[in-house]
Amino acid sequence: MEIKIKKAPLKKRKAKPADESQLGFGKIFTDHFFNIKYKEGRGWHDAIIEPYRPLQLDPTAMCLHYGQEIFEGLKAYRGKNGEIYLFRPAENIKRMAASAERMCMPPMDEEIFLNALKKLVILEQDWIPRGAGTSMYIRPTMIATEPALGVHSASEYLFFIVVGPVGAYYPQGFSPTKMYVSEEYVRATRGGTGNIKAAINYASSLYASRIATKMGYTQVLWLDALEKKYIEEVGTSNIFFVIGDELITPPLAGTILPGVTRDSVIKLAGYLGTKVMERPISIQEVISASENGSLKEAFASGTAAIVSPVGQLYFRNKEYLINGGQTGPLAEKLYNEILQIQYGLKEDPFGWRIKIRDGGKAKKG
Ligand code: COI
Q: Distance (Å, rounded) from C-alpha 82 to C-alpha 161?
């Protein structure tokens, strides 16, 4: 399918951020976005990259009432000679298809999806920042647009992609975060939607996050819904612990998000010689390991947060420092290795990065 491109007039284009150290996360968006419509019986149609604008939705658009909304997150990186890379986009495309299936939404055509990603990033390439640790965040999203109030899966959808320059996800950058272990609230339960990227998972996490933030913590560390015993994931990311000489992360058993960065960390850590275990890990095991000195490090992984060290846990009115509250050596190594692969600065033994533009003089959009 052809993607129509309608460019914004030059005089209507926004000024690009002057100070890349102040980008933050998810606050700035570019001049264009991609969108495509779906209607039952007609399929996906009218693919277009057009000037960025508010969406027009009927007040009864079903996403606004019954929450059929799924999304993805990936990034584009600028190499040192101006090359542009995507990191494992096929994984996001696959995961979005799984999210769509679970939410009774139509799968996005894989070829159109990849083509739209490449075309939009290339068109907006001047927006990809240059500073260390910066990139262009890409947010593919699908919403139900059929105007109807009966509870059923919608017959009309909109899929769109917006992009924007980002820096570190957490305001403090690559430095240790503090996690609040919630025993009162849960993120997901077996048979629910915890293993897909649905907006509902994030909405229902906000209340516990607010409690954590009020108490001075960065995010919530979620436990399993059934026994409140096993660790699931943290805030918007997956979680890893170094106990003794093993790197441990909870298994993909249906309630946690199958993170692309999680998978990259597992493969990369194994490749670099660390023993990696995907197995259930209880909060009690982590607390005991902290008390007996075998808990060496903890870190979170995610597209937005990359690898983010955890320096402290709060559990049952007690604080547990991890690695003296400092970034651990494995978190630092994995953070650097992953970034170097993403920016094309290092050999990519897994074939993860896709070059979508060669280095050299930048083309004008
Ligand atoms: C990501 O890491 O891409 C996420 O989606 C996390 C969050 C910003 C929702």
A: 23
Q: Which two tokens stand for residue 349?
A: 């033994």
Residues with CB under 6 A from ligand 1: 73, 202, 236, 302-304
Residue nearest to atom 3 of ligand 1 (CA): 73
Residue 322 identity: I
Out of 166, 303, 307, 342, mutate this one to test ligand 1's pocket (max ligand atoms within 8 Å of CB): namely 303
Token pair listed for 129: 């920042």
| Rounded distance between C-alpha atoms, residue 324 and residue 319, angstroms | 12
Task: Determine the residue type at 67.
Answer: G
Mean pLDDT over 25-36 rounds to: 97
Instruction: Characterise 205 by phi-psi region: left (phi > 0), alpha (psi -120 to 50), beta (else).
Output: alpha
Contacts of 139-142 with C-beta under 8 Å, sequence gap 24+, read 139/26, 139/71, 139/72, 139/73, 139/163, 140/71, 140/72, 140/74, 140/92, 140/96, 140/108, 140/113, 141/69, 141/70, 141/71, 141/72, 142/69, 142/70, 142/71, 142/96, 142/100, 142/105, 142/108
Q: Please state, in angstroms and rounded to a whole number, the distance separating the CA atoms of residues 125 and 122.
A: 5
Q: What Å distances lie between residue 97 and 1, 32, 103, CA to CA?
A: 19, 24, 10
Q: Which atom of ligand 1 is nearest to the CA of 236?
A: 6
The string over 62-87, giving b where at least 16 C-beta atoms fall within 10 Å of a residue's C-beta and e elsewhere, is bbbebbbbbbbbbbbbbbeebbbbbb
pTM of the predicted protein model: 0.95
Residue ranges of domains in the chain, CATH in brackets: 4-167 (3.30.470.10), 177-342 (3.20.10.10)
pLDDT digits (tens, 9 = 90+) for 184-226: 999 999 999 999 999 999 999 999 999 999 999 999 999 999 9
Q: At what angle do helices 89-102 and 260-271 cross, to 10 degrees?
A: 140
| Closest among 257, 263, 284 to 187, alpha carbons compared | 257
